[in-house]
C-alpha cells in the first residue's frame, strides 16, 4: 500500500533511559567498576534467591475479597467469591497467565525495579475484566498535575505505543519519595551489589586464568626436554582419585612443597559471605532463607519463619492488598459497608501435624472452632454433627461445703 509523505503517520519511538544507554555503552555506574541494573543484579545467586523467596511466597497465597459490615458493633465478613475482582485474583487474571504467574511477575518487577505495572481492561458493567502486566522498562510514567498521572506503554513485539490514565493501571510501588514512583532497592544499594558482582568476577577470573596448583616440585638443575618429559610422566602416576594416597618417589634431587590457602583467599571467601548478609539486609530477609546456614539451628529457623511473615511478608502483603483495592474497587459500597482484600498467609505458619492437632484440640474444647472447620483446614470433607461447637468452656466445677466436711 502506497503512503504519501508527509501525511503518513510514523510509529512513535520510546526514548532511551540513561541506565539503558550506560548499559549499552559498557560504562560502569559503581565505584567497583561494575554496571548494576535489575538484570545484572539478579546474576548474583543471593539476589535471585531473595527475589524468588518473596515473590513465590506472595504468589502461592490465595487473595480473597470480603464485604465487611457492622453487625451490632461487631465486624461481620462475607467472602465475595462471585465478584469479578476475586475471580481475577484467584482464577484467571488474563488469557495467558495463571494467578500464580501474575502475582509472581508483579512482585518480581517491584522487588527488582521498584515499580510494577498491569493494564486494567474494564468491562461495560464497570468491573475489571483482565490484568495484563508489562515490564517496567516498557512503561514511561508521567505526572500530569498534582494528583493525575499517565502511563505510556510500548508493546514489546509490535513497538506500538499506547497511553493510559491512572484508572487503567494497577501500579504497585516499593519505597517512594514523592508518593508516585517507587525506588528500586537495586538502585538504592547499587554499591553493595557492585562489590558482590566484582567479587564474583574476580573468582571467575581466578578459575580461568589463575594458578590453582596444590603443590610445587623443586629441582636443583634445569630440566631439559628429555628430563622434563620424564618428570611429567612420573607425576602422571599419582594423579586422579584412583591414585589418591600413594606415596610419590621423586628422583634427581627433587623436593615437593605443599601449598595451602593463602590469607588473601580466606579473606575473599569471608567477603563473599558478607555480601550475602548485605543482600539479606537489603531485602529484609534472614540469611537462612538465602541458603546461608552457618549460624542456623532448628530453634532459630522456626523463629526466622515467623519473623519472615511478620517483618518481611506482612508489609508487602499490605501494600499489595491496598493497591488492589484502590485500583480495582472504584465503586463505593453502601453506607456501613466496606471491601477488604486479604491474602491468606496461614500456610506460612503451618506447623507439624502434632502441633496442628494440639491447636485444633484446644480450639474445639474452648469453642473457638468446630470439628468441621478443623477438617476443612486439613483438606478433609465435613462429617455429620461436626458443625456443633463445644460448650465445655461454659462448664464450672463447684465444691460444696458439705463435701469438704465429709472429707475431713
From TrEMBL:
Pfam family, any one: Phage_portal
Disordered, as annotated region: 368-408
Superkingdom assignment: Bacteria
The protein's name: Phage portal protein
InterPro entries: Phage/GTA_portal, Portal_HK97
Biased composition (Basic and acidic residues): 373-386, 395-408
NCBIfam families named among the record's database cross-references: portal_HK97
Record-linked Gene3D superfamilies: 1.20.1270.210, 3.30.1120.70, 3.40.140.120
Amino acid at each position: 500500500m502506497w503512503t504519501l509523505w508527509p501525511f503518513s503517520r510514523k510509529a512513535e519511538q520510546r526514548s532511551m533511559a540513561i541506565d539503558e544507554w550506560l548499559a549499552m555503552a559498557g560504562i560502569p555506574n559503581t565505584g567497583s567498576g561494575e554496571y548494576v541494573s535489575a538484570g545484572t543484579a539478579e546474576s548474583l545467586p543471593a539476589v535471585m534467591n531473595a527475589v524468588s523467596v518473596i515473590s513465590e511466597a506472595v504468589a502461592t497465597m490465595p487473595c480473597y475479597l470480603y464485604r465487611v459490615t457492622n453487625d451490632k458493633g461487631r465486624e461481620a465478613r462475607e467472602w465475595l467469591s462471585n465478584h469479578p475482582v476475586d475471580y481475577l485474583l484467584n482464577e484467571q487474571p488474563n488469557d495467558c497467565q495463571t494467578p500464580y504467574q501474575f502475582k509472581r511477575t508483579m512482585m518480581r518487577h517491584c522487588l527488582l525495579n521498584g515499580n510494577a505495572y498491569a493494564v486494567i481492561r474494564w468491562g461495560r458493567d464497570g468491573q475489571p475484566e483482565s490484568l495484563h502486566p508489562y515490564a517496567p522498562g516498557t512503561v514511561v510514567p508521567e505526572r500530569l498535575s498534582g494528583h493525575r498521572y499517565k502511563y505510556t506503554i510500548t508493546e514489546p513485539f509490535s513497538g506500538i505505543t499506547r497511553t493510559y490514565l491512572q484508572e487503567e493501571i494497577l501500579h504497585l510501588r516499593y519505597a517512594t519519595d514523592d508518593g508516585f514512583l517507587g525506588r528500586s532497592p537495586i538502585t538504592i544499594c547499587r554499591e553493595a551489589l557492585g562489590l558482590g558482582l566484582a567479587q564474583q568476577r574476580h573468582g571467575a577470573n581466578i578459575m580461568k586464568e589463575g594458578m590453582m596448583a596444590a603443590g610445587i616440585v623443586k629441582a636443583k638443575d634445569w630440566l631439559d626436554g628429555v628430563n622434563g618429559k620424564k618428570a611429567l610422566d612420573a607425576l602422571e602416576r599419582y594423579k586422579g582419585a584412583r591414585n589418591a594416597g600413594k606415596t610419590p618417589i621423586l628422583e634427581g634431587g627433587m623436593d615437593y612443597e605443599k601449598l595451602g590457602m593463602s590469607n588473601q583467599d580466606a579473606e575473599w571467601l569471608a567477603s563473599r559471605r558478607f555480601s550475602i548478609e548485605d543482600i539479606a539486609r537489603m531485602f529484609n530477609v534472614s540469611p537462612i532463607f538465602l541458603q546461608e546456614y552457618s549460624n542456623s539451628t532448628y530453634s532459630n529457623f522456626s523463629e526466622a519463619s515467623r519473623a519472615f511473615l511478620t517483618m518481611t511478608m506482612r508489609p508487602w502483603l499490605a501494600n499489595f492488598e491496598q493497591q488492589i483495592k484502590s485500583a480495582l474497587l472504584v465503586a463505593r459500597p453502601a453506607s456501613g459497608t466496606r471491601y477488604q482484600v486479604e491474602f491468606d498467609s496461614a500456610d506460612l505458619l503451618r506447623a507439624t501435624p502434632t502441633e496442628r492437632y494440639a491447636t485444633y484440640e484446644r480450639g474445639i474444647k474452648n469453642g473457638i472452632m468446630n470439628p468441621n472447620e478443623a477438617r476443612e483446614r486439613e483438606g478433609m470433607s465435613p462429617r455429620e454433627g461436626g458443625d456443633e461447637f463445644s460448650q465445655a468452656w461454659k462448664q464450672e466445677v463447684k465444691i460444696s461445703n458439705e463435701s469438704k466436711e465429709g472429707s475431713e
